[in-house]
Amino acid sequence: MKLKTFSLLLIALLTGSQGMGQNTTMAIAWPDWMPSISGTIRAKGEYQPNENEGRFEVRNARVAFDGKIIPSVVYKAEIDFSDEGRIRMLDAYAGLKPLTGLTLRLGQMRVPFSIDAHRSPHVQYFANRSFIAKQVGDVRDVGFAVTYKFKDCPLTLEGGFFNGSGLTDQKDYWTKSLNFSAKVNYQPFKVLTLQASMQKISPTGGNVWLYDGGATLHTGHWTLEAEYLRKHYENTSFDDVNALDAFVAYDVPTKKVFRNVRFLTRFDMMDDHSDGVATEDGTIALTDGARKRITGGVTLSLAGPLQADLRLNYEKYFYDNIELAKPSERDKAVVELMIHF
Question: How far is CA 191 from CA 36, 69, 140, 281, in A?
Answer without folding.
Answer: 29, 35, 29, 51
